[in-house]
Specification:
- The complex is a heterodimer of chains A (425) and B (116).
- Chain A is mainly alpha-helical.
- Chain A folds into three domains: 1-100; 104-193, Arc Repressor Mutant, subunit A; 230-410, Tetratricopeptide repeat domain (Serine Threonine Protein Phosphatase 5, Tetratricopeptide repeat), CATH 1.25.40.10.
- In chain A, 68% of the residues lie in helices and 1% in strands.
- Chain A is built from 20 helices and two strands.
- Chain A is elongated.
- By secondary structure, chain B is α+β, with helices and mostly antiparallel strands.
- Chain B has a single domain (3-110), classed as Dimeric alpha+beta barrel (Alpha-Beta Plaits).
- In chain B, 30% of the residues lie in helices and 36% in strands.
- Chain B has helices spanning 18-37, 88-102; strands at 3-11, 41-46, 54-59, 62-67, 75-84, 106-110.
- In chain B, the strands form two sheets. A four-stranded antiparallel β-sheet of chain B has the order 2-5-1-6, covered by helices on one side. A two-stranded antiparallel sheet of chain B has the order 3-4.
- In chain B, a hairpin with a 2-residue loop joins β3 and β4 (62-67).
- In chain B, α1 (18-37) packs antiparallel against α2 (88-102).
- Classes of the chains: A mainly alpha (425), B alpha+beta (116).
- Chains A and B meet through loops of A and α2 and β6 of B.
- Chain B: It holds the Pfam family YCII.
- Chain B: Belongs to the YciI family.
Chain lengths: 425, 116
């Protein structure tokens, strides 16, 4: 017998697909969500006795559409709505229910992704909508993940859906010339969800697994829906390669473990294999972009059985390419770390010191590490302190505190880590 | 057809040099014609500077008239269009052309009550 929690699981998995189709049919996000909710209520009443239908996804969409018709009938106040009911039922000849037969579910999922990530919505709203409508997360879950009160997140979602409705943000996959910019926005939203899960910007837990899992799922969906977009592939590869190290990244009590200090036997070989396969496919296409290059850098790390085996020259070359496409100080900082591995800490420090990143905690953490390796311990302690003041993540603060203690109690630092990222990526 | 307001946000202060202004006016003529040809144009107009504004309020039946614009800011609405567009992407397309022609930021805002 099927349990209610299993029904909930199925609905969560099918939520995005069902809502995507129903938005197309009903022309309204709220109506689509209500209809899927109604179908869920009916499933809870029916499935435990009747058993699982042969195609749960098809059942949910059909039932939700029928419940939407019921709702419209109940609420029908004029000819317009009754006409809409007729269209939904396919009553009139030639009035096939729009959406389901004509378009595939995938077409509608892609439309929903681009609507949720429309540039007329602010980033926070894009992220919240994407998790709600495509991920099937509840408002409470999204609020918890981003550490905002539930009413605040509820307001954010209501406002965003209101803007889609009133400003008429279209339910459409952008065409040719628009597509590259719009896709960038979609990929940025997915990566932001991943990063929020991977390196929570504040709070006690360093990793929030559910957000990482959801971001990987969305990344996979987008790659499958847009197989000709190498950056979509690059993003999925990047997330898989980072996610593969999750178990090795933290100590049992939540502390941070640097890449160089990680127990590499804990790395998830399946995710690494899939990520590396995707990176090789990207290399073959030879249309590099920021996500593909970051994935390639992480693929090089994943290749090394031991930190000492890391091909830093290759990483330095890749960071050079990334810097050419994305000339930001943060990329330059990462390149400087690779430079320090190839040419020594003095060269790395010289490249770091010219960057204007004083408000960024990793800038200070990297400087501190290089100063420590150069034996300039007093300056290193000051830089670790500067880094500490600039992060709210408890695990990162504890890690930096440990570094300071090691320098001040023994007079000399611990063994030099060969990490390109004090985040422990 | 849905309608959108396109507001031009203009910094307070002197108008641009004549040669700059002439180019802008010529570009605006082209844009207005393009909007008319596409059936999008409803209305357009430029405004005198915000310093010529007057705000009128009624509190408990008492009329209060104050000199100057409602909001103190460095930029004010300097002109506007009302256009018809099937959705926001089309309206933003006109907004982009308006921003290019005026060289100023354009706020695109939907009218209520013009949904179908």
């Amino acid at each position: 017998m099927i349990h209610i929690s299993e029904i909930g699981q199925i609905f969560r998995e099918e939520y995005g697909r069902s809502v995507a189709v129903l938005v197309r049919v009903l022309g309204s996000i709220d109506a689509a969500e209500d209809a899927v909710q109604d179908a869920f209520t009916e499933a809870v009443a029916r499935w435990p006795d009747a058993g699982l239908p042969p195609s749960p996804a098809g059942w949910i969409i059909t039932t939700a559409r029928n419940r939407a018709i019921d709702r419209l009938r109940r609420e029908a106040s004029g000819r317009e709505k009754l006409a809409q009911v007729a269209v939904l039922r396919g009553d009139e000849p030639g009035d096939e229910p729009e959406g389901i037969e004509v378009d595939t579910v995938e077409d509608n999922q892609l439309r929903l992704i681009f609507t949720c990530c429309h540039p007329a919505l602010n980033r926070a709203a894009q992220v919240a909508l994407t998790l709600k409508l495509l991920g099937g997360l509840s408002t409470a879950e999204i609020a918890h993940a981003f550490l905002v009160p539930e009413p605040t997140m509820g307001q954010r979602l209501v406002r965003a859906k209101g803007k889609i409705r009133d400003a008429r943000i279209p339910y459409r996959v952008p065409s040719g010339a628009e597509l590259p910019e719009r896709l960038k926005s979609v990929l940025a939203v997915v990566y932001l969800v991943f990063n929020e899960g991977y390196a929570a910007s504040s709070g006690a837990g360093l990793v929030r697994e559910d957000l990482c899992r959801e971001a990987v799922r969305l990344g996979r969906l987008i790659m499958e829906l847009m197989p000709d977009e190498p950056e979509a592939k690059g993003l999925l590869a990047l997330m898989l390669l980072l996610n593969a190290r999750r178990a090795a990244r933290t100590t049992p009590d939540g502390g941070l473990v640097l890449l160089a200090d990680q127990d590499r036997s804990l790395w998830d070989r399946d995710q690494i294999a899939e990520g590396q396969l995707l990176v090789r496919q990207c290399l073959k296409r030879n249309q590099p972009g920021p996500y593909q290059l970051q994935a390639a850098i992480n693929a090089v790390h994943s290749d090394a059985a031991q930190p000492a085996d890391t091909d830093w020259r290759q990483i330095l070359v890749l960071y050079g390419q990334l810097l050419a496409i994305e000339p930001t100080p943060v990329v330059a900082l990462n390149r400087a770390v690779a430079l320090a591995e190839v040419e020594g800490p003095a060269a790395g420090l010289a490249a770091v010191d010219v960057l204007e990143l004083g408000s960024y905690y990793l800038f200070h953490a990297v400087r501190a590490d290089l100063l420590r390796r150069l034996g300039r311990n007093k300056e290193a302690v000051a830089a670790y302190r500067a880094a500490q003041e600039r992060t709210n993540n408890a695990a990162e603060r504890d890690f930096l505190e440990g570094r300071v203690r090691a320098l001040t109690t023994t007079g000399r630092g611990p063994a030099a880590p060969t990490s390109d990222d004090p985040h422990g990526r | 057809m849905p309608r959108y307001l396109l507001s031009i946000y203009q910094p307070d202060g002197p108008a641009p040099e004549p040669e700059v202004l002439n180019k802008i006016m010529a570009d605006l003529d082209v844009l207005n014609q393009e909007m008319r040809d596409a059936g999008a144009w409803v209305f357009t107009g430029g405004l005198h500077p915000a310093s010529t504004s007057t705000v009128v309020r009624v509190n408990d039946g008492e009329v209060l008239t104050t000199d100057g614009p409602f909001a103190e800011a460095k930029e004010h609405v300097g002109g506007l269009w009302v256009i018809e567009a099937p959705d926001l992407d089309v309206a933003l397309g006109w907004g982009r052309k308006a921003a290019q022609a005026t060289t100023l930021p354009i706020e695109v805002r939907p009218f209520a009550g013009y949904r179908e």
